Structures are given as structure tokens and as C-alpha cells.
Amino acid sequence: MTKTLDARNYVGTGLPGRNGQRLADVVLREDPATWGDLVIDVRGYPPEYLVSALFNAFWQRIFEQQPDRMTEAKSVRWEFAHPFRQTIFDLLRSRFKPRQPV
């Protein structure tokens, strides 16, 4: 069963990186076995915050908390208001390389 997370309920108008971390924290509280059924709806989210910093911070937080779940994290579906945003998102997702802890 699909569970939709409306990004507006979890992130504010702060910095995109911090918003990405907050959104990742919400996903991390979900049962990892259900991540494939999650949809993050950003259709009503302000477009100026849908930048690479948000997505990279999201995946980085997942990597830091549950590195063995990166495949599942990248399978979480995101819904965008415009198809070009999905294209950009797919490119960013394919190129994401987590920073290793120092």
C-alpha cells in the first residue's frame, strides 16, 4: 500500500540542506521494509527549494544513519509538479556519491 509523505508537512522554508535532512529523518522513522511503497510529494513545495542540496542532504543523512539502506532510499518515489524536475532528480540520484565520515 502506498504511503504519501507531503513534504510541506515536514520541512519549512529553511536552508534546502537542512530540509533534506529533516525529510530523511521522517523516512528513517518508517519501517525500511515499506520504503518501496513511500512517495514523497513535493508538488506543492516551493520550487526554489527543490535544489540539489535538498536531495543530496536527504541521501547523505540516510547514508550516515543506515548505509546499508541506500538502495531502498533511492527507490523512494518522489512526485514533482513538472516532468523536467523528475529528469533533474533522476540525474542527481544517479550521480550521488555519499561523503565518507572523516
What's the gist of this structure?
The protein has 102 residues and is mainly alpha-helical.
Total count of helical runs of at least 4 residues: 4
Q: What's the end-to-end separation, in Å?
A: 39 Å
Strand neighbour order, sheet with most strands: 1-2-3
What structural category do the secondary elements indicate?
A: mainly alpha
Uncertain segments = none
- Give the helix proportion (percent range): 40-55%
Shape: globular
Secondary-structure element pattern, one letter each: EHEHHEH
Average pLDDT confidence is 91
Number of separate structural domains:
1
- SS elements, strand count: 3
For the sheet with most strands, the description reads: 3 strands, parallel
Radius of gyration, in angstroms, nearest whole number: 13 Å
Strand content: 5-15%
Layout of SSEs?
Blueprint: E1 3-6, H1 16-29, E2 38-41, H2 52-65, H3 70-75, E3 77-79, H4 83-95
Parallel strand pairs: 1-2, 2-3
